Amino acid sequence: MELLQAQNGLAGSITVPADKSISHRSIMFGALATGQTTIKNFLRAQDCLSTLNAFKKLGVPISDDGTTITVTGVGFSGLKKSQSDIDVGNSGTTIRLMMGILAGQNFTTTLFGDDSLNKRPMQRVMTPLQQMGATLTGKASSEFPPITIQGTKELLAIDYQMPVASAQVKSAIIFAALQAKGTSTIIEKEISRNHTEEMIRQFGGEITTNGRKITLTGPQTLVGQNVVVPGDISSAAFFLVAAAITPNSQLHLKNVGMNPTRTGIIDVLKQMGANLTIENLDTNNQAADLKIETSALHSTIIKGEIIPRLIDELPIIALLATQASGQTIIKDAEELKVKETNRIDATAAELKKMGADITPTEDGLIINGPTPLKGAKVSSRGDHRIGMMLQIAALIATGTTMLQQPEAINISYPDFFQDIKKIIVGEHHE
Ligand code: S3P
């Protein structure tokens, strides 16, 4: 499809869609708690619908009246064996967190995904769960999906030092530890998003965090809650960068989730000189409104502990860096290679087609700026975040940009193109 340009700037306000990580977990915790959970502002995008359908297949009653999702919790002992293998589509969060949940069940389940998911590494989750006593096998004895999980009601607690910084791996271990008898300790490589820990507390469970160390004792019982999902800062990131790099722009983003384990993008934008203001910060539900304007940007170095706090934002940060003066270096981000695509290669190759000065490295990217971008034939490569990043690049490019596989964006943001259209000055709005 032909992407939109923004010759006259961007203006207006956007309420970005609900947080993907919290939406997945709200279904999971709702299912595993006792009593009812209601979820408002659930993200009705492909990835989260994969989680919703997976729990329906495990016998959890879930209804949706268009505004509120209601989950009738069955508790950790109430899940039922699925009649058939479960398709989790493109969703790494669904498969990895479910592996931890299913490790504690006394039945066998097979989870599989699309071509992209079936190539993503699962050993990182299988190893700790196997140590806890569950049996997990990948396709033809590999670490790749389909993954068959033969759970046990006799899971053992674990002391585990994580070799990768990953909230998905951490969360899978936590879900298993909630069902194991005894105290488990997890030490993170770097602090990653903590939605699972926060939601355990919200649902009446107990978990302690001390820096990179997490401690919890099982088995626990959770109680259903009313969840209101805030907007996703990872979706807001595309608009933050769009306004910063497009001349004559000012945007307001409403109700953006501000969990500190997710706000690395704000730190980077500020470091690079962006005119960004945080308004109406509500510390209770960790959300705020953000105001951002066209900005004179300079380069920075992004490495170390900040990486997990902005891991999904690195493709759009790379685009930001193409418009900043000087050399931006992104390192310690080798995890990008095992996302929905190899995001180091995809970001570099697709932006290069548009004239960017960008070089992939073993664990990141080196970008020299500023460089004017020009229209090209580009592809999302089936990765939602690469697709959205390329539409933002097209806003400031000269000439026509054609995007192949635009439908990938439905994974996290089905209304993305409508929302972009709304904020382009001079576009017709219906
Ligand atoms: C997620 C964790 C991250 C992130 C993904 C969502 C989560 O993955 O990239 O989009 O909801 O836990 P990793 O844990 O593999 O880093």
TrEMBL record:
Positions annotated as active site in the UniProt record: D312 (proton acceptor)
GO cellular component, one term: cytoplasm
Subunit structure as annotated in this protein's UniProt entry: Monomer.
Pathway: Metabolic intermediate biosynthesis; chorismate biosynthesis; chorismate from D-erythrose 4-phosphate and phosphoenolpyruvate: step 6/7
Organism this protein belongs to: Enterococcus canintestini
Alphabetical list of PANTHER family matching this protein: AROM/DEHYDROQUINATE SYNTHASE (PTHR21090), PENTAFUNCTIONAL AROM POLYPEPTIDE (PTHR21090:SF5)
Name listed for the protein in its UniProt record: 3-phosphoshikimate 1-carboxyvinyltransferase
Gene3D superfamilies assigned to the protein according to its UniProt record, in alphabetical order: Enolpyruvate transferase domain
GO molecular function, one term: 3-phosphoshikimate 1-carboxyvinyltransferase activity
Keyword Cell inner membrane listed: no
UniProt similarity note: Belongs to the EPSP synthase family.
Residues in the signal sequence: none
Keywords: Amino-acid biosynthesis, Aromatic amino acid biosynthesis, Cytoplasm, Transferase
Positions with a binding annotation for 3-phosphoshikimate: K20, S21, R25, S166, Q168, D312, K339
